[in-house]
Amino acid sequence: MIREISRAIASLTMINGTIPLWRRPISLIAVISTPFSFLFFIYLFGGPSKILLGAIGGVLFTIVNASTMLQTDLLFYKLDLKFQQIVASTPVNPLVYTFGLATGNIVFTLPGLAIFMLIIVYESHIGVLQILSVIGTLMVTWVIFSLFSFLVSTRVREMRDIWPISVMFSIIFGVVPPIYYSISVLPTTIQYVAYLVPTTWAAILLKGIITKNFTGMAIPAVVFVLEMMGIMVFTAKFSNWRLNRS
What we know:
Blueprint: H1 2-23, H2 27-46, H3 51-80, H4 83-88, H5 94-124, H6 128-155, H7 159-174, H8 188-194, H9 198-210, H10 218-238
Helix pairs in contact: 1-5, 2-3, 2-5, 3-5, 3-6, 3-7, 3-9, 5-6, 6-9, 6-10, 9-10
């Protein structure tokens, strides 16, 4: 079973990541241009002291953006290529299908993620355990928004509708939340709203890990994991995988 799942994920990663990247390497520029643009302006107006904050926001935005843009890939394979219907008739389950394609999306982000991580390590001098903690936080973020993208893709019926939706979600979850700035600058009432967004907790964890400020990290970590479990249950209940077979 594990071997079959691994082969399915590897094949889907090739289809949605490795092969497209090999054929269109210019796509790398499009994927990393937005977070690096933010980093440039943060450095320009905030100076060298803000480069670490910009890198933290950049690495998180890159994950969120890749995960929300997965909506367009899922809908393209479902509506235009009818590929999802083929996969749905095989033993491959929706979770394997989603994460196979999501892993393909991550392939496009690897160079950008590597550069951001190098900046973070250089600026903060974090150790191996902290690096692993950062990677773990990013992986949970990736899981949350990949599942969310799958849920959205099963509810949208027109390809033309998914483009504004995916861009809107990328901004709502990747730009507006306090990932490039401290949540403390927001009014108290707005902070309560921000805490509803998973990206806020991811940013709190990353900033705490990277700045070595571990005080009060337990609650954000628990809430973040609970949000991941909640989106798993919600996606399993409300996604229309069977409906999409026809």
